[in-house]
């Protein structure tokens, strides 16, 4: 398995994996195992790669096994959900500091192909993503739909993210999670911290 930062030529494969596991297109039998809720266009992926360097990939040979997205709050600010989260940052304290656009960033979504779930891909993909962002931001912030227990369990029990709050948006309930980016990812075997 190889882990690296995404390049423009990876966008087609990222789009295919996103479509396979997006809440609007995922099969009902796969939904219980996790899904992504935000649909990104090729242009948005391109901007994320070019301006933020914010997509980490897991590759099994030439096959995309998974991706993880991360970016500054500035990148996410055009989406209403993220705009809401940005406004809410000032009410959250984590690691003895009030969160802000300057000291934190938004991680996710992460999408791992079904056959690679429960393997070393999650911690190594998370670690690769963390390494892409840790020099810019001390705190990772993310959210998980409360109807996605597999993702919640993976991020809290396997990766060590901490619940820093809950919120409601657009008739959905979410957990908000935080992570200290100076900490190496538990279970990761790639990267150098």
The tally of helices reads: 7
Q: Structural class, from helix and strand content? A: alpha+beta
Largest sheet: spatial strand order: 1-2-3-6-7-9-8
CATH class: Alpha Beta
Percent strand equals 25-35%
CATH topology: Aminopeptidase
pLDDT under 50 segments (min length 5)? none
Provide a compact summary of the structure.
This protein is an alpha+beta fold. The chain is built from seven helices and nine strands; from the N terminus they run βαααββααβββαβαββ. The mean pLDDT is 92.
Helix/strand layout:
Blueprint: E1 2-5, H1 11-21, H2 28-31, H3 42-52, E2 55-60, E3 63-71, H4 73-76, H5 80-88, E4 93-94, E5 97-98, E6 104-112, H6 121-133, E7 139-145, H7 149-158, E8 162-169, E9 172-180
Parallel strand pairs: 6-7
Antiparallel strand pairs: 1-2, 2-3, 3-6, 4-5, 7-9, 8-9
């Amino acid at each position: 398995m190889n882990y690296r930062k995404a390049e423009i030529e990876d966008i087609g494969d990222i789009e295919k994996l996103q479509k396979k596991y997006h809440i609007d297109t995922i099969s009902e039998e796969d939904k219980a195992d996790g899904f992504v809720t935000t649909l990104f266009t090729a242009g948005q992926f391109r901007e994320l790669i070019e301006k933020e360097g914010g997509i980490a990939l897991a590759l099994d040979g030439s096959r995309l096994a998974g991706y993880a997205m991360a970016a500054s709050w500035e990148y996410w600010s055009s989406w209403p959900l993220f705009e809401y989260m940005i406004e809410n940052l000032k009410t959250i304290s984590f690691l003895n500091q009030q969160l802000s656009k300057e000291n934190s960033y938004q991680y996710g979504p992460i999408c791992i192909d079904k056959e690679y779930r429960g393997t070393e891909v999650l911690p190594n993909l998370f670690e690769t993503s963390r390494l892409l962002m840790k020099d810019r931001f001390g705190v990772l912030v993310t959210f998980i739909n409360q109807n996605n227990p597999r993702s919640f369990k993976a991020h809290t029990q396997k990766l060590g993210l901490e619940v820093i709050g809950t919120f409601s948006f657009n008739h959905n309930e979410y957990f908000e999670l935080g992570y200290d980016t100076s900490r190496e990812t538990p279970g990761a075997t790639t990267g150098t911290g």
